[in-house]
Amino acid sequence: MKNKFTLIEVLVVVAIIGILVSFLVPVLGNARDKSRSSVCKNNLKQLSLTMYLYLNDSQYIINHFKTNPSNVLPIPWSRANVFPGDNSILECPSDEKANPASWEPSYGFNYFYLKERKLAEISKSEETIFFADSGHINTTHPWNNRAVAGYLINNKSAWAAPIGLRHEEAPNLLWVDGHVSTLKDMVSIHLSNELWDRE
Fold first, then answer.
1. DSSP character for 1?
2. Predicted confidence band of residue 138 (pLDDT cuts 50, 70, 90)
3. H helices within 58-169, ranges in order?
4. Can you spell out the DSSP letters for 157-198?
5. What digits encode the pLDDT tens for the residues 11-48?
6. So what's the pLDDT on residue 159?
7. Residue 181 and residue 44: Cα distance in Å, rounded?
8. Are 97 and 128 in contact (CB under 8 A)?
9. Which candidate, 133, 135, 161, 164, places its Cα nearest to that of 148?
């Protein structure tokens, strides 16, 4: 004769399953976040390769704009319709506000410190921000509430975006020398010019 489970035994099994699920969900969530961060880092690496090809054609003068045919405003080449490479790398999988077709790619350029600079002038290229996760507008960032242009990042400007905090409160950064890393000490980054302009 086959034994039947009692109600208490069924409830115990359900409770154990519930406990196991409660342990697994955060682990799976962390794995998903790490995977997205890895894709983001790869996007920045591809952006670096594209930028260096561009620099090779521009006598190694850093510029982030293409001339607008109407000669009214220059167009950032991180905008999807003028980007010289695969547009998909302009969008981080963790960035819900990304809109590369407009003025909001996932990554902002360190325009104020690097515009029209010769690459050779940057003596500490491994410590100078090139591109980074863009904070866009209305983020949970301490430097929010700006009417910003998301394709540019800056530590102090009133209209460039702050660095975005998408990956466990830490941004992915592309440095001028081409390497990509993650930093968590955002306060010191934003309160000084260090890491923005390393001559």
1. -
2. very low
3. 111-114
4. -SSEEPBP-TBTTB-EEEETTS-EEE---HHHHHHSSTTT--
5. 888 888 888 777 766 666 666 778 888 999 999 999 88
6. 64
7. 10
8. no
9. 161
